[in-house]
UniProtKB/TrEMBL annotation:
Descriptive protein name: Molybdopterin converting factor, small subunit
Residue stretches in coiled coil: none
SUPFAM superfamilies, per database record: MoaD/ThiS (SSF54285)
PANTHER family on file: SULFUR CARRIER PROTEIN CYSO, SULFUR CARRIER PROTEIN SLR0821-RELATED
Family annotation (InterPro entries): Beta-grasp_dom_sf, Mopterin_synth/thiamin_S_b, Sulfur_Carrier/Prot_Modifier, ThiS/MoaD-like
Domain of life: Bacteria
Amino acid sequence: MAVTVLIPTVLQKFTSDRATIEVEGANILELIDALEQACPGIKARLCDDSGKPRRFLNFYVNSEDIRFLDNEKTALNDGDEVSIVPAVAGG
């Protein structure tokens, strides 16, 4: 099942400067593994040492925050759009 992933500018050096990439995965964890296969080195930027998505990155499936769904086990369907959005802080 093909899923479109929107890549933030800061990570596009891993995707040959592509802002979107299509990969397959049944959930967010499988999607991240597929991204690593297609774009070596990106997983270390997306996941912490335990393999879970980093806290300062927000993942959205069709504009829904995965923290309000099933986190990294959020199911994906063919045609879904996953956005990776770096958290912004400041004051």
